[in-house]
Amino acid sequence: MSDPEELQSRLSRADAGYYTVEVCRGIATKIDRIRELKLQRNAVLLAHNYQRPEIFEVADFTGDSLGLSMKAATVNEADVIVFCGVHFMAETAKVVSPGKIVLLPNAKAGCSLADMADVKDVADRIAELKVDHPDLGVVCYVNTTAAVKALCDSVCTSANAVQVVASMSNKTILFVPDKNLAAHVAGKLPDKVIIAWDGHCYVHQQINPDSVLSVRAMHPGIKILVHPECRDDVVKLADAALSTSGMVDYARDSDATEFLAVTECGLSDLLAVQAPEKTFYRACKVCRFMKMITLDDVISSLETMQPEINLPDSVRIGASRAINRMFELTASMAAIN
Ligand code: SF4
Predict the structure, then answer these.
(1) Given the CA of residue 289, which atom of ligand 1 is nearest to it?
(2) pLDDT tens digits for 161-199?
(3) Residue ranges in the chain whose pLDDT is less than 50
(4) Which residues contact residue 30 at a Cβ distance below 8 angstroms, ignoring those fewer than 6 apart?
(5) Shortest-distance atom of ligand 1 to CA 86
(6) pLDDT of 239-266, one tens digit each?
(7) Nearest to residue 185, comparing CAs of 199, 197, 175, 171?
(8) What is the location of CATH 3.40.50.10800 in the chain?
(9) What is the model's pTM?
(10) Is the CB of 111 under 6 A from ligand 1?
(11) Strand partners, 285
(12) In 3-state terms, the chain is what percent helix, strand and coil (to 5)?
């Protein structure tokens, strides 16, 4: 049986006001039910770093989107993957693990950034640009639908975007869909011509320099970790611009004791739970999509085996090719974290 008081001592680091012993009593019962269902279904549960703290309690693995998908591909003994993240991530898990049942416990958990790159619009833009740039290369951030990935030469993550673009022989690159990550890559690779898709993450776009500077003014020795989906004027303030898993590793390995994680608030929750001896300040915003999946959704999903992610073969094979190209370009699984 899960112990509500032990749960409360962990979860209250994320939000002391919400995770009362009473609330944790209800959570403990649901956690026990999920553990029972996971055994019955031979399921593995993957949770993105931005999920609710109680989801981390039932996760077999936490990480960023592609890191989790790679983990899914190697969990050979599981029949079912429960992906607690958003839709494009569950699709990626299906692309790399076609033989497994992939469940996304709440079908409404989408991503506004991925939605900004419609597959037909991307196909039309590629055709248009290739008239003037026959050598055009197309790189898509992992935050795209599988159908868009299938149109790209290579996928990239926030951890390896610079490395992927640098490794491509094409001088001109269409970078889809995040314009802030595109600007970060362009700043690092002045010899490339980067044509940015006009998309952004609504969460990271809301974070401005003042919210970072005000925390730094109060805590001058603090290490500032910024996700490259943030605006350029925010990324410039970073001690390190990192993917979410890169931030977790940095905070764990650093001798510093005080950090500001500038990204979605769930990462601060995870850091508070995973590194209780360190102090994490916040300049973050909440992603409504990432908070949609609840423990009740996970229970219902494992009971009904719905909603299940399925992809047409043509999309799955095309997306798989673009993901594999990323591995060839980065030549190492270590590029994914
Ligand atoms: S934080 Fe931004 S990129 Fe991530 S799921 Fe939410 S809307 Fe999409």
Answers:
(1) 6
(2) 999 999 999 999 999 999 999 999 999 999 999 999 999
(3) 332-337
(4) 54, 295, 296, 299
(5) 5
(6) 999 988 889 889 989 999 999 999 998 8
(7) 175
(8) 4-110+290-304, 113-200+312-335, 207-282
(9) 0.91
(10) yes
(11) 264
(12) 50, 15, 35
